[in-house]
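Propose amino acids for all 181 sites.
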């Protein structure tokens, strides 16, 4: 979904307790913000709560996102949140993971080229070399990370380094045929 540049996205992950949604929405409302989208999920298996909200400043308000960000730190610390806030005008940094089959990668690259997917592809990572030519044709960095049952932990550690190094915000498993731990 495409949002006007005046929209912002907040993503939250924290221990699941009562009052998170109320605290976040109340804070944003008190700052003169209107929430246009919101989704939340409680992972009862691991006790984590996840939330994503898209918001904008109410019409007529010339809000300062820096003030929102600094003020939200109090709410975040109360619930021990991991959180991020960014403008929807900035494309998300996405890492694509693939194995041997090209149809999912081809679809993502096509939609990206046509402007249907507003994202910045940081790299394509694969446990096989089969799709390297597709990445090279698009001018996208290709990273080969072979994996066996004996090297799975090392491969996943290397993958986490790549995510950090590239500033990746989202990892897409585009027919990646391995289970990640």
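Proposal:
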């Amino acid at each position: 979904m495409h949002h006007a540049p005046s929209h912002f996205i907040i993503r939250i992950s924290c221990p699941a307790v009562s009052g998170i949604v109320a605290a976040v929405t109340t804070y944003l409302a008190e700052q003169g913000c209107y929430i246009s989208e919101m989704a939340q999920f409680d992972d009862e298996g691991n006790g984590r709560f996840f939330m994503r909200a898209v918001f904008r400043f109410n019409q007529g308000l010339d809000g300062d996102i820096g003030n929102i960000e600094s003020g939200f730190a109090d709410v975040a610390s109360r619930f021990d949140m991991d959180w991020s806030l960014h403008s929807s005008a900035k494309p998300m940094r996405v890492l694509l993971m693939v194995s041997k089959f090209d149809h999912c990668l081809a679809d993502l690259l096509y939609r990206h080229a046509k402007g249907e997917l507003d994202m910045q592809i940081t790299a394509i990572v694969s446990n096989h070399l089969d799709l390297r030519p597709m990445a090279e044709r698009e001018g996208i960095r290709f990273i080969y990370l072979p994996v066996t049952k004996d090297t799975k932990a090392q491969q996943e550690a290397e993958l986490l380094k790549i995510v950090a190094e590239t500033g990746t915000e989202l990892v897409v498993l585009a027919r990646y045929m391995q289970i990640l731990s």
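Residues 66 and 72 are 10 Å apart (CA to CA). The radius of gyration is 19 Å.
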